[in-house]
């Protein structure tokens, strides 16, 4: 018996065969922030935590696309850049979808650090490490970007990395964000 494929399954299959546009990594933002493999290996649990948090939030907020994730990552990176200089200034995106992602990631990072504090008696996660991981995720998202305004190639890549994640909550954008 043949099973009908859902729209999401069809799009994922199509994306596997789609040729990605050529990207010049020299033009990526935040190239001044070095992300060595050593940083990624040392902070693998945090990197996984961040990518799962981004993906789960994107699946819970209707209408989120890669552009919203990139905008949220940009705001987070700007916020963590200011922390590096000793000043705390939040760069929350104006876009409500990106803003929801931004707030969720900020809250999740606070909980992550709180858990470290309770478990280890101190926080070992440095702001510089978080900044590097956010830049890494931004560059991966830019590499996956297919140039479509409502594209979800990066989110689908996260779905493949985290297969036990929830299904999308809807394809039509909503002006209401539930928290």
Please sum up the structure shown.
With 179 residues, the chain is mainly α. The protein is 59% helix and 0% strand.
List keywords for this structure.
179 residues, mainly alpha, 7 helices, 59% helix, 0% strand, globular, disordered C terminus
How does this structure look, described?
This protein has seven helices and no strands. By secondary structure, the chain is mainly α. The chain has one domain. The longest helix has 25 residues, at 96-120. It is globular. Mean pLDDT is 85; it is low at 170-179.
Strand content: under 5%
Output the number of helix runs.
Answer: 7
- Helicity, as a percent range: 55-70%
Give the assembly state of these chains: single chain
Radius of gyration: 17 Å
Domain tally: 1
Beta strand count: 0
Mean pLDDT: 85
Low-confidence regions: 170-179
What sequence of helices (H) and strands (E) makes up the elements? HHHHHHH
What is the molecular shape?
globular
- State the end-to-end CA separation: 41 Å
- Pairing-aware structural class of the strands and helices? mainly alpha
Main beta sheet strand tally, sense and closure:
none
Secondary structure layout:
Elements: H1 7-17, H2 37-42, H3 44-60, H4 66-84, H5 96-120, H6 127-144, H7 153-161
Helix pairs in contact: 3-5, 3-6, 4-5, 4-6, 6-7
């Amino acid at each position: 018996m043949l099973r009908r494929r859902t729209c999401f399954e069809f799009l994922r299959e199509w994306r596997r065969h789609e040729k990605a546009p050529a990207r010049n990594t020299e033009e990526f933002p935040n190239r001044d922030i070095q992300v060595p493999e050593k940083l990624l290996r040392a902070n693998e649990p945090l990197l996984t935590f961040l990518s799962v948090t981004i993906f789960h939030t994107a699946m819970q907020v209707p209408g989120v696309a890669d552009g919203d994730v990139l905008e949220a990552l940009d705001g987070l990176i700007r916020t963590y850049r200011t922390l590096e200089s000793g000043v705390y200034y939040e760069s929350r995106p104006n876009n409500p979808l990106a803003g929801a992602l931004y707030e969720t990631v900020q809250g999740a990072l606070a909980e992550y650090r709180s858990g470290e504090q309770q478990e280890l008696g101190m926080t070992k996660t440095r702001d510089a490490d978080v900044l590097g991981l956010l830049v890494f995720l931004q560059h991966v998202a830019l590499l996956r970007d297919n140039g479509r305004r409502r594209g979800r190639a990066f989110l689908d890549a996260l779905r493949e990395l985290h297969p036990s994640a929830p299904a999308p909550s809807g394809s039509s954008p909503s002006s209401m964000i539930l928290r």
